[in-house]
Amino acid sequence: MHRKLKESNPRVKLTHLNKTNIVDVWAHNFQAEIAEIADLIEEFNVISLDTEFPGTEYDQPESDDKVTDYEYLQLVRNVQKYKLIQLGISLANEAGEVPLAKNTWQFHFKFNAQYDQLMSSVKNMLEQAGIKFDDLASKGIDYSEFCEVVTGSGLILNDEIKYVVFHGEFDFGYLLHLFHHSGIPDTQDEFYKMMKLYFPSIYDLKYILKDNPKYKDAGLSRLATKVEVTRIGPEHQAGSDALLTLQCYYQMKFCFPDLQSDFEKNMNVIYGIGKGYIPNNRRKTFASTTQTPDPTLQVSQIDQAYYYAQNFYNDEQQYYQYNQQYMNYTYYNQYQMLDTDQQKRKSGY
């Protein structure tokens, strides 16, 4: 008796994709969607990832000694304190084709904005992007169930999968903290060992482009503009950001041959962690101002370079202002900033 061959899934070139159905995954359809994804990754083994989370706290290091260790400890402290809100994934094959019917999913976790820690600025940003926190609290996916089902799905712990991110420091920090039985490791060396197990092959576009003068200072949205990729779906939702990351990845691989060597030599390094730490990528000193700090934020060390990049970007010597308000703060002795890493990563850092 002859075994019936599995039919190939209809697909379309990612470069020809002008709309897609970003699938919202809640508790009620979680297991069914994971089962579909598990079938698809046999053919579509390139997965881009993006996360949304409650914000980021940073302390200014007292000295530059062991600053990479200090930065990593900031990551550990944040993922232990906060909970993941959304995970977006998008699938493609090596030829840059995506499944026609479904190719992008965003997983909504059981997050309660009344009890779980959440920065007000992040809450406002995500609500403007269309995230409904009441739905997260009532219909979101349980974290334990997510880990159990995904661990056996082939989405992780799979040598055949290639993962693509843009500034994946917090994306992988939160995911490792979920999947690893002891949480996120205490040291960067252990972190990379765990990454090799859970996510064996990684391309972090932010790190890959770190030495390219044209792209190194670009956030995700600005990079997409520079490589002529059009976003599908709302910014600051994990599904749209994951798809945009995938679009940028293939656009650069297929249309920019001078970047090919950068992809291979910078593989498996995450921007911001260990070897991926870029000195002075966050802290710069600007002249002081006289405006009053926003009372909704806690500030003790201003990261003024972040505010410059968050709200303005320079493209061909022109500045374009995003929809977020530009803010300046009085610079005193020991400021510290509780800022939104999602905004920072996608707007210039």
Automatic annotation (TrEMBL):
Xref: InterPro entries: CNOT7/CNOT8/Pop2, RNase_CAF1, RNaseH-like_sf, RNaseH_sf
A single GO BP: nuclear-transcribed mRNA catabolic process, deadenylation-dependent decay
Tagged with keyword Endoplasmic reticulum: no
Catalyzed reactions: Exonucleolytic cleavage of poly(A) to 5'-AMP
GO CC list: CCR4-NOT core complex; nucleus; P-body
Cell location: Cytoplasm; Nucleus
Keywords noted in UniProt: Cytoplasm, Exonuclease, Hydrolase, Metal-binding, Nuclease, Nucleus, RNA-binding, Transcription, Transcription regulation
PANTHER family per UniProt: CCR4-NOT TRANSCRIPTION COMPLEX SUBUNIT
Protein family (similarity comment): Belongs to the CAF1 family.
Name of the protein this chain belongs to: poly(A)-specific ribonuclease
Source organism phylogeny: Eukaryota, Sar, Alveolata, Ciliophora, Intramacronucleata
